[in-house]
Amino acid sequence: MTIENSTQQDIETIFDLYKKATQHQRDVKGTVVWPVFEQSLVEKEILEGRQFKIVENADVACVWAITFSDKEIWEEEDNEVSVYIHRIATNPKFRGNGYVEKIVDWAKQFAKAHRKRFIRMDTVGENKKLIAHYTANGFDFLGMKKLKDTSALPEHYSKDDVCLFEIKL
Questions:
Q1: Structurally, how many domains does the chain consist of?
Q2: What is the tens place of the pLDDT at every residue in 85-124?
Q3: Does the pLDDT value for residue 48 go beyond 90?
Q4: Domain annotation covers residue 147
Q5: Is the entire prediction scored with pTM above 0.85?
Q6: How far apart are CA 75 and CA 79, in angstroms?
Q7: Does the residue 146 lie in any domain?
């Protein structure tokens, strides 16, 4: 297993994993589902070195993105000493391999190397299994929050409150 930056050649795979994650959210989990994300968003993340992948035997097993500011979601709690993780999507043939734990381990090292003190995530809607999964992997569940303005966010943020998670380093 390796963790690498995603490349432009991964875009088709990333969007395929997003599509499969959305199907899983809708068909299995019954939760708020991801919209179709703009390709320009992923292209920008790749160009800025903020889109990552886990590779297992030449297969992309999991992808995610990061940002260093998340004011639209974290509002007044947004800060410069956090790294924010978004859109973890796992290849269905690799589900159950503990990738959130691997991402957390990677994020701790990444955050320390970039002088960050917090790792943060969010999810839309009260998905109790996902809350339990993230807390089992070291995140503190900070509660649910109604966002004040979702106009600059992907559409699923307007469908429900968000759950906020944080690891303090």
A1: 1
A2: 999 999 999 999 999 999 999 999 999 999 999 999 999 9
A3: yes
A4: no
A5: yes
A6: 9
A7: no
